Amino acid sequence: MRRILVINPNTSARITTILTAEARRIADDAAEVEGVTAPFGAASIESRAELAIAAHAVLEAIAAAPPCDAAIVAAFGDPGLDAAAEIAPMPVIGLAHAGLQASAADGRRFAVVTLGRHLRPELERAAVAAGVADRLTSIRFLDGGVLDLAHDRERFLDAMVAAAAACVAEEGAEAVLFGGAPFAGVGRDLAGRVAVPVLDGLTCAVEAALALPRAAPPVSPPPSAVMKPGIGLSPSLAGLIHALLARRSRG
Question: Model pTM?
Answer without folding.
Answer: 0.93
